[in-house]
Amino acid sequence: MIKRLKERWGITSSFQIVIIFIVFAITGSTSAYLSGPLTDFIIGVESDLNPFIKIVIRIIVLTPIYQVLLLFFGYIFFQYNFFLKFVKKFLSILGFGFLFRD
């Protein structure tokens, strides 16, 4: 499995995979932690909004936070180029690929 990830991601060392997994873990935890208070700020803490709508708004808030944090932590752990490609691919899937045309 590790060998397939190395080939798919274009990585040469197993240590690099460990670093990438650490960055994904830190980014996921941090973005989930930050999205709750930010969502409450946007819709109001005492809002009578439907819980389903609150979840949709939280996901919409979470997505850009995750992408920015992924690049930030990727930079800190010296994996910026890998995560830049990852973010570009993800955003192009969502229809924002025009932002990265060279």
Question: What's the SSE blueprint?
Answer:
Blueprint: H1 2-9, H2 14-43, H3 51-76, H4 80-93
Notes on the protein architecture:
There is one protein chain. With 102 residues, the protein is an all-alpha fold. The chain has four helices and no strands. It has helices spanning 2-9, 14-43, 51-76, 80-93. Helix 2 (14-43) runs antiparallel to helix 3 (51-76) and helix 3 (51-76) runs antiparallel to helix 4 (80-93). The chain is elongated, with a radius of gyration of 16 Å. The model has no long low-confidence stretch (mean pLDDT 88).
Low-confidence stretches: none
**Helix/strand structural class:** mainly alpha
Helical fraction: over 70%
State the shape: elongated
Beta fraction? under 5%
Q: Mind telling me the C-alpha Rg?
A: 16 Å
For the residues shown, what is the average pLDDT? 88
Number of helical segments with 4 or more residues: 4
The strand count comes to 0
